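Work Package 3 (structural annotation) set out to generate three-dimensional models for the target panel prioritized at the project kickoff. During this period the team completed the workflow that converts sequence records into discrete structure tokens, so that structures can be stored uniformly alongside our sequence database. As a representative example, we reproduce one entry of 67 residues exactly as it appears in the project archive.
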Amino acid sequence: MTVFVNDETFEFSENPTLIEVLNQQGINELHGLALAINEEVIPRAEWSAIKLESNDRLMLIRATQGG
């Protein structure tokens, strides 16, 4: 199945959870991170339960300091 992560295409054999996608991407630091599936922000408490479907678009948003 195909999933888009920040507009890059990734293939998975099964429907991955959001946490599984983060692990696959090598993202271990979750502080300041937000996730949206198909432009809908997902609460952090649901990341380990929600499974992506084929052709879902996952956006990873990292908060940064600056001004």
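Residues 33 and 62 are 5 Å apart (CA to CA).
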